[in-house]
């Protein structure tokens, strides 16, 4: 898969070419067995390039917090699918996704027009690397994101197991401007009212949001703010250490790479489903 990381749609959807077979109107006759046809329940646009939506959940669909699934739309000759992180809790009735809109992107330029009642296709199986099982035990969990990379962390923040495993959860979100930070603010602000995690989240979640281009309360790339120590000083917490921290990284390819390098310099070792470790990087959308 060559699409990059946006939960997502991780944003690197390629603009469509001028001759576009997807515009033909004849419906795909039959869906492949690995896909189900779901219905859109809600759509909320945050900016002209970011929106969230929820869809119905098939009764048999299971996933772990942090995993992604292929979703998409029916087109004339084939389903057009991309990987999206699931933002809802594993126990939620509906499935929530957070998407970038790539101008002229084959899928997102169409997906951004969905309305309640419309059809969205979804693969029957979820998978992914950003899961709690792939981390060894520690005290604090850092969820470090840029852009739509926050989406899998919405799921992890809504999952009770997160608070059983970690005493403190620090979620960081960096975007270009303040308007792009609203989704993570909405998710974190709603946590105290969540019947499953409300009590734990109210006391144990800290959100640190920064922007890099527009005006906002805190400015700067999270990599720079961590490296200089400013992020930890702002939050009044101890700097990152493999002795007591675990980290999940999710954002653009460049960000994932820089953040991974920062952690490795600090002595963290990467984990996986097969061999749990001290940090995890979203790999689904790379390569
Ligand atoms: P910047 O504005 O300095 O590029 P995007 O919307 O392009 O995916 O970017 C989301 C956020 O991620 C932006 O604030 C951007 O900062 C930041 N970002 C992009 N690349 C990196 C990187 N390599 N390290 C840290 N932050 C990054």
What would you say this structure looks like, in words?
The chain is α/β, with parallel strands linked by helices and 287 residues long. Helices cover 20% and strands 26% of the residues. The protein has two domains: 103 residues, Beta Barrel (Elongation Factor Tu (Ef-tu), domain 3), CATH 2.40.30.10; 150 residues, Nucleotide-binding domain of ferredoxin-NADP reductase (FNR) module (Rossmann fold, 3-Layer(aba) Sandwich). It has eight helices and eleven strands. The chain has a six-stranded antiparallel beta sheet with strand order 4-3-6-1-2-5. The N and C termini lie close together (6 Å). Bound molecules: adenosine-2'-5'-diphosphate.
Topology of helices and strands:
Layout lengths: L34 E13 L2 E6 L12 E7 L4 E7 L9 E6 L7 H4 L7 E5 L16 E7 L4 H7 L2 H6 L2 E8 L6 H9 L7 H7 E7 L10 H6 L2 H6 L9 E6 L2 H13 L13 E3 L6
Parallel strand pairs: 7-8, 7-10, 8-9, 10-11
Antiparallel strand pairs: 1-2, 1-6, 2-5, 3-4, 3-6
Bound molecules: adenosine-2'-5'-diphosphate.
